[in-house]
Amino acid sequence: MMRAAFDRRVRRLGLTRSQWLVLSLLHRRPGVSQSELAEMLEVERAAAGRMVDRLERRNWLVRRPDRLDRRVNRLYLTAEADAVQAEMGRIAVELLDDAMAGLGAEEREALSDMLERVKAQLQGMSPRAASSPDARPGLSP
Amino acid sequence: MMRAAFDRRVRRLGLTRSQWLVLSLLHRRPGVSQSELAEMLEVERAAAGRMVDRLERRNWLVRRPDRLDRRVNRLYLTAEADAVQAEMGRIAVELLDDAMAGLGAEEREALSDMLERVKAQLQGMSPRAASSPDARPGLSP
DNA sequence: AGGCAATGGTAGCCTAGGCAACAAGCAGGC
DNA sequence: GCCTGCTTGTTGCCTAGGCTACCATTGCCT
């Protein structure tokens, strides 16, 4: 429902929530590879790749080959994307605020905290959990 | 992540979480129409219709015409669907329990309650909110 | 140097959902 | 009776994601 609400609100900008997540991430870390992007978004490489396809087709970002490793594409936002990115961020905050209108400050804190814990739990049972480099994924080591 | 985790667990049964939601609902209320189904699942009529397509194609349910209103299809589970439905329910409960393993009983209660409130808030701003029959959709009556 | 495993990216097939346009059917007003 | 408007369902086009198989490249190890 959050996704749907967000998409409804930013439709006029010609983007979706998922696309905004990419833009936002690329704004903070320009030059990441597609694999890195996929991992950060917690999504399959294929899905990330197609996302990049769509965004590139609409000129929101550019693929540029890495000079050291010919396999990887480094991703960079275009100027327009950089411009719209902030606006989307504002909308995201607004939506979050509206959605939690019925909750007090401590409740929001608690909700956020609990969801983080649930997320960690779910991450621990995801197939991608095995390759965690340093974090202990299991629950009973 | 919940959806993904659930789908991973029930894959061997040849179904998905969304499909299970339909089966579960139809088990409790056989003979609902597609529109009713869509509303109960909080999904567009088109999406519900395609869902029914897939489930019918795989013989999990049957469309039967209503005798009074030739527009509507009434939906009924097949025997196999009825059988597998309970199993899926058990898996759902298990998953929920696993996901909230890091939370105490009161926390779970609180989380559930808060999410309900957030959901209500989001429902109030959805486009389908206007046609609510009795409930007041606004936030400050 | 050569081979082999790991990594990055892509394409194919699938489910899932949104929005819009449409046809068929129903119901109420005149 | 007839027309007008609403409801039900379907179809088309779109994004989004999962899984698998595959190709190219890289890097390690012998």
Give an account of the 3D structure.
Two copies of one chain form a homodimer. The first copy, chain A, is mostly helical and 141 residues long. Chain A folds into two domains: 2-99, Orthogonal Bundle (Arc Repressor Mutant, subunit A), CATH 1.10.10.10; 104-141. Chain A is 59% helix and 7% strand. Chain A contains six helices and two strands, in the order ααααββαα. Chain A has a two-stranded antiparallel ribbon. Chain A is globular, with a radius of gyration of 17 Å. The N and C termini of chain A lie far apart (36 Å). The model of chain A is unreliable at 131-141 (pLDDT under 50). Chain A binds chain B through residues 1-2, 4-5, 8, 42, 98-103, 107, 110-111, 114-115, 117-123, 125-127, 139, and chain B through 1-2, 4-5, 8, 42, 98-103, 107, 110-111, 114-115, 117-123, 125-127, 139. The structure holds a DNA duplex (30 and 30 nucleotides).
What characteristics describe this protein?
homodimer; 141 residues; Arc Repressor Mutant, subunit A; 2 domains; two-stranded antiparallel ribbon; 6 helices; DNA-binding; transcription (chains A, B)
Oligomerization state: homodimer
The radius of gyration over CA of chain A amounts to 17 Å
CATH level 4 superfamily of the largest domain in chain A: Winged helix-like DNA-binding domain superfamily/Winged helix DNA-binding domain
- The assigned structural class of chain A equals mainly alpha
Write down the overall mean pLDDT of chain A. 87
CATH architecture group name of the largest domain in chain A: Orthogonal Bundle
Strand order of the largest sheet of chain A: 1-2
Identify the most extensive interface between protein chains. Answer: A-B, 28 and 28 residues
CA-CA gap between termini of chain A: 36 Å
Largest sheet of chain A: 2 strands, antiparallel
Share of β-strand residues of chain A: 5-15%
Low-confidence stretches of chain A: 131-141
String of helices and strands of chain A: HHHHEEHH
Organism (chains A, B): Siccirubricoccus soli
Protein name (chains A, B): MarR family transcriptional regulator
Keywords (chains A, B): DNA-binding, Transcription, Transcription regulation
InterPro entries (chains A, B): HTH_MarR-typ, MarR/SlyA-like, WH-like_DNA-bd_sf, WH_DNA-bd_sf
